[in-house]
Each structure stands twice: as C-alpha cells, then as structure tokens.
Design a protein that fits this description.
The protein has a domain of about 180 residues: Spore Coat Polysaccharide Biosynthesis Protein SpsA, Chain A. Helix content is about 45%, strand content about 15%. It is built from 13 helices and 13 strands. The strands form three sheets. A seven-stranded mixed beta sheet has the order 3-2-1-4-8-6-9, sandwiched between helices. It has a three-stranded mixed beta sheet with strand order 5-10-7. Strands 11-12-13 form a three-stranded antiparallel beta sheet. Strand 1, helix 2 and strand 2 form a beta-alpha-beta unit. The longest helix has 26 residues. It is globular. Pathway: Sphingolipid metabolism; Lipid metabolism; sphingolipid metabolism. It is found in: Membrane.
C-alpha cells in the first residue's frame, strides 16, 4: 500500500507541475493590438436559443455593444413559437433600435443535435461573409469582434475559437459549476495547447467564413454529433487550415440550480471528451492533484513530505483561481470552496467511465465512440 500511496503522491506532484504550466500560459496572455490595416468585414452572429437564462438579455447585449466599425447582424433562433426566449429578443430589439437583429422561429429538424438543427434554420437569414456561431450563455468584451476578425484574417486560419472562464448566475450550485470551468476546464485546455496535445474548437465561439463552412460540407454534416464544435474544428484542420485560439477569455454564464443539474452537465462534457479521446481523457487524471495527493498522503500516514506535496497542490489551485479571477474582475466562489470543488471534479472523472449515457435538455442520449447521438430515453422537458 505504501508503494501505491507513493505513486499517487508522485502523480499529484506531476499534476501540480502541469497546473503551473497552465498558470504560466495564462499569465503570458499577450495584450491585444489591432492591426492598422485591419479590414472590419461584415459579420453575422448566430445565437441558438432554448428558453430563458438568468442573464440572457445582458449576455446577448454584450455582442451588440462592440467597438467595431463593420456591419453586424445578430440572428437569434428558437424552435418553438412558445419559446420563453422570444420576449427577451423583443426587449433586445427595443433596447437596441439601430441594431440588425433577426429572430428565426422554426421547428425543422435536421438530426438528433437540436442546436445544429436550429443553426441550419438560422443560416437562411445570414447575409454576411463571416459567420460567428456562439452559445447563448456567453458574454464578451467590447473588443471581441475586432479581435476575432483580426485572427480570422490570417491566411492559414480557417476558424477562430475562444477560451472562457465561468460565472455563476443562479446561486451556489452555478457558482460551483463556474469554479469547475475556471479552475479545471480552462487549465486543462491551456496545458493541452501549450504541450501541443489539444486541438480545441469550442461552442463559445466558432468564427469562420461562409465559404469555409460550405467547403467542409455545411452544418448538416454535424447534425447527429454531440461534440459538433469539436467536429467542426477537426473538419477545418483536415482541410488544411488551422483553428486560431487568441489570447482572450470570454465569460460563460453558468445557470445550474441544483447538484443534479451540475452533475448532468459535467458528465455530458466528460463523456463526450472520453468518447472522442479515451487516452487523453484518462491521462487527465493527473490534473486532480489535490484529491490524489490527499489519498496518497493518507496511505503514507500524513508524514511531512506527503503533506508538503498536498500543500503545494493546494497553492497551485489557488494560484490558478486568483489569475482567472483577477482577469475577470470577480470571484465566482470563495477560495475555501476549492477542496470541495476538486473532490467533486475527481468523483465525476471516475463516474465518467461507468456509462455512455448523457442528459441533454431533458432527453437521454447514448454517445457512440464516434461522438454520434442516439436517443436513449425521452424525459419530460
């Protein structure tokens, strides 16, 4: 048992080193400077919606308050005339009378992925050559469009995606979810990109030209995939183009109101990643240095060296949290919550391997090894 405990402590130390690499990468984010000759082309932003969210109006408004001289079209799509997001879009139109805001209401289905079906329906109204697909729960800074279009202007770039931090908008559980994004998901992506192991393309932002989307087969190609954002990125890379990841962080508005909702959301993310990259997901075990270190220290009797390893792991977690919180200007949850959040993430990591079912907006699906969805069991929405 002592050998096993020592192995866990070694794994914890490696994980702590990995967290510090992620912290250094975040610390070295370069300040943005727009090119003097940057062309601000017309942009269409696509926002697939499904019901209301605590800060939906405020989040959407950030995409309209942009320091961007080019034309901007915002298309919001819902799949039912009874969708509770519609009144919010009408309020948005009233608040921004000069903005080009289009609402698309269509129940047409093109596959098992409802978000992709929504986006396909919305595309019929898109007028501009640059498309930005962005989830409804994102908020951005006023230089967002300038930075995105600037990155997309590079000749070898086929798409642009963005990292994001968490913000809890619906109470304690949503704040705990925000910690998971800021202190677990974000460092893992930063580490993966720094080591050349990750090729992210995320629903926070997928900016690409309409011609590029057409060249990879259009959105219909991804209508049955759960990880549609990842698949779009892979298709673009397969075409010979890169997916740029600018040094900027968006804000993800977490809205979980219960432990059950938090678990369902994070299991869906975990199982999607695990199906697409089993080895990579399994290897991310080391990114849980605090719980692994505590288990190892318990086995080894909490002697000074094991306790030091645990202490350094905790310091690394706090450092990541402070860096992200400093950039955001707010803290989603107290630092004292870090151990609880770490043990929850570790438990969900283990749970991921015991099944392939995911819950998405009230419907249970099974994810096959290619990331395709099949209906598992209908539930009441």
């Amino acid at each position: 048992m002592v050998i096993f405990g020592s192995a866990l402590l070694l794994m914890s130390a490696i994980g702590t080193a990995c967290l510090m690499i992620a912290a250094i990468r975040l610390y070295r984010f370069k300040p943005f400077r727009a090119a003097l000759d940057q062309q601000c082309e017309a942009v269409t932003i696509l926002k697939p919606l499904h019901g209301t969210e605590p800060q939906l109006f405020a989040n959407l408004s950030t995409f309209l308050r942009q320091d961007y001289p080019g034309n901007v079209q915002l298309i919001c799509g819902v799949q039912s005339a009874a969708d509770t997001a519609i009144p919010i879009i009408e309020t948005l139109r009233t608040a921004h009378p000069n903005a080009d805001i289009v609402l698309v209401v269509s129940a047409a289905s093109h596959g098992t992925n409802a978000k992709i079906s929504n986006l396909i329906n919305m595309l019929t109204e898109a007028r501009h050559p640059i498309l930005i697909l962005s989830d409804s729960d994102m908020a951005v800074a006023s230089d967002y469009l300038v930075r995105i279009t600037g990155a997309l202007a590079a000749t070898d770039v086929g798409a642009v995606t963005c990292l994001y931090r968490g913000r809890g908008d619906a109470g304690g559980w949503s704040r705990l979810a925000a910690m998971g994004i800021s202190q677990h998901f974000l460092p893992s992506v930063l580490l993966g990109t720094a080591l050349g192991l990750a090729t992210p393309c995320m629903g926070s932002t997928i900016a690409l030209r309409r011609a590029t989307l057409d060249s990879i087969g259009g959105l219909g190609r991804f209508a049955d995939l759960l990880a549609d954002d990842y698949a779009i990125g892979q298709a673009i890379r397969a075409s010979g183009k890169s997916v740029a990841l600018p040094d900027m962080l968006l804000t993800h508005a977490c809205t979980e109101t219960s432990l059950k909702a938090l678990i369902q959301q994070e299991l869906r993310w975990n199982r999607t990643i695990a199906q697409l990259d089993k080895a990579g997901f399994a290897g991310s075990l080391v990114l849980h240095p605090l719980p692994i270190g505590l288990v190892g220290a318990a086995i080894c009797g909490f002697s000074p060296i094991p306790l030091m390893i645990v202490g350094v792991a905790l310091i690394a977690r706090i450092k990541i949290a402070l860096l992200v919180d400093c950039g955001a200007g707010n803290r989603p949850a107290p630092l004292l919550w870090i151990p609880a959040r770490d043990f929850l993430s570790f438990a969900l990591f283990i749970w991921t391997f015991f099944g392939r079912a995911v819950d998405w907006r009230g419907t249970a699906f099974t994810v096959d090894p290619t990331g395709r969805l099949s209906t598992h069991q209908d539930k009441t929405r």
